[in-house]
Design goal:
By secondary structure, the chain is an all-alpha fold. The chain has one domain. The chain contains 10 helices and 2 strands. The chain has a two-stranded parallel sheet with strand order 1-2. Helix 1 packs across helix 5. The relative contact order is 0.13. Keywords: Membrane, Transmembrane, Transmembrane helix.
């Protein structure tokens, strides 16, 4: 005679011992993050983008410092060279974060990702977090390398102080992380690399240049890169301080994140 199994008291559903993982959501958010980390490095584009960012940083900062030395510009913080290079280097982060999303839509593997992580907000947040962490580490690395290269190029026409230099390094890393979140949101909204890159290039580069050319400095300062430039550079005459600047960039990143999540929930795979 078969004796029926006795449910474990106080558990829901029966036969589930407290503390065991839920089979419906293996790994939870940590598992989703681990999966996104693995997928990010399974393609070559992120590595190529980071290598390009390092090369661009070195070339641009040495050029910036050399021009300042040749033209005998006033002495400035050495970190300003690395902060100025962000205008170009940020697009390597844009490519990295965009590919992390659009590559799955291009290959159709996004269906498997959504089946393994049914909670749409979870997979969306996991991709944004992984891209932001990689972008922060990359941004701080670019800043350190850029400052070191620029110090040689300045040849005495730059100042160095540990506190301000560290602040600039962390500020550049934080800005790049917010750009990664912004790019992830746009990529989820467009689902196509060309469309995402076109929107981000317009927002981060073309539109600010047009506004500055037309005398719209105030509007340009409210765009992500305008605010980021004030946040990363040590400017005694900036229109606003570093806290409002980073809040402006964070607001743009949050808006893009919410739009991308809305599209993901409405259109799914």
């Amino acid at each position: 005679m078969t004796v029926p199994a006795t449910p474990v008291r106080g558990t829901d559903p029966p036969h589930t011992v407290p503390g065991t993982p839920d089979r419906g959501a293996p790994g939870g958010f940590a598992g989703a993050v681990a999966a996104e980390w693995t997928k990010l490095w399974s393609v070559r584009a992120p590595c190529l983008a980071l290598a390009a960012g390092l090369a661009i940083t070195g070339v641009f900062t040495y050029y910036y410092a050399s021009i300042a030395r040749i033209n005998e510009h006033p002495v400035q913080p050495v970190g300003n060279a690395a902060a100025s290079s962000v205008a170009l280097v940020q697009f390597t982060v844009v490519v990295l974060a965009t590919v992390a999303v659009t590559s799955e839509y291009t290959t159709g593997s996004v269906r498997g990702s959504l089946l393994s992580v049914p909670a749409r907000h979870r997979i969306h947040a996991a991709k944004a977090l992984v891209a932001a962490v990689v972008a922060f580490v990359a941004g701080t690395t670019f800043a350190v390398v850029g400052a070191a290269v620029a110090w040689v190029g300045f040849d005495g026409r730059a100042s160095f102080a540990a506190g301000p230099s560290l602040r600039q390094v962390l500020a550049i890393g934080l800005y790049e992380a917010l750009v990664a979140v912004l790019s992830t949101g746009v990529a989820f909204a467009t689902r196509h690399p060309a469309g995402a890159l076109a929107i981000l290039a317009t927002l981060l580069w073309a539109l600010p240049g047009i506004l500055l050319g037309l005398g719209g400095r105030t509007l340009a300062d409210r765009l992500p890169h305008g605010a980021g430039d004030h946040f990363t550079r040590l400017e005694p005459e900036a229109p606003y301080g570093p806290v409002p600047a980073v809040l402006i960039v964070a607001a743009w990143a949050a808006a893009a994140h919410l739009i991308g999540l809305y599209v993901l929930r409405r259109r799914d795979a």
